[in-house]
Amino acid sequence: MVRSGQQNTKDLRKPKKLRKTWEFNRVYRDGVRLYGKGFTLVYLRHEHASEHASEYANEQLANCCTGSRLGISVPRKVGNAVQRNRIKRIIREAFRLHREVFPEQSDIVFAVRPGISLAGMQAVRDAVARLTMPLLLKVKV
């Protein structure tokens, strides 16, 4: 348990989530798309996001130094509400525990497509790792 005054690096509270429509739209418009089996990962690095900061009245783009933020989009075509919520929980948990496989210092939208098959959190982590491994290798070289 985290006591007050201590910060949990594995949390996923509001500042670590994309919540506003304009935040999602900015990532969709300016972001890089990676296509996986049953999902699309769209990410926008924070240095690119600051170029467009003047376009938005609400300048919450001061997020540039706080790490990555996650947004999840699951359309109604993907099962019923129980299935959609389960998918979102699995994706959030994979992001929370395995941030090293997601793009760093980015706003990330995980857009689920009909036909996704999630066996669990490890399946999401492995699918994202396959997509982002070339990116991680480029950045570290």
Describe this structure in words.
The protein is of the alpha+beta class and 141 residues long. It has one domain (14-140): Ribosomal Protein S5, domain 2 (2-Layer Sandwich), CATH 3.30.230. The chain has 4 helices and 4 strands, in the order H-E-E-H-E-H-E-H. The protein has helices at 21-30, 46-49, 81-97, 121-140, and strands at 32-36, 39-45, 69-73, 106-112. It has a 4-stranded mixed sheet, sandwiched between helices. Strand 3, helix 3 and strand 4 (106-112) form a beta-alpha-beta unit. Helix 3 (81-97) crosses helix 4. The longest helix is centred in the last third of the chain and has 20 residues, at 121-140.
Show the helix and strand layout.
Blueprint (H helix, E strand, L loop, with lengths): L20 H10 L1 E5 L2 E7 H4 L19 E5 L7 H17 L8 E7 L8 H20 L1
Parallel strand pairs: 3-4
Antiparallel strand pairs: 1-2, 2-4
Helix pairs in contact: 3-4
Structural class: alpha+beta
Shape: globular
By DSSP (H or I, 4+ residues per run), the number of helices equals: 4
Q: Please tell me the total number of domains.
A: 1
Helix content: 25-40%
How far apart are the termini? 37 Å
Keywords:
globular, 141 residues, single chain, alpha+beta, Ribosomal Protein S5, domain 2, 4-stranded mixed sheet, 4 strands
Task: Put the structure in a nutshell.
This protein is an alpha+beta fold. It contains four helices and four strands. It has helices spanning 21-30, 46-49, 81-97, 121-140, and strands at 32-36, 39-45, 69-73, 106-112.
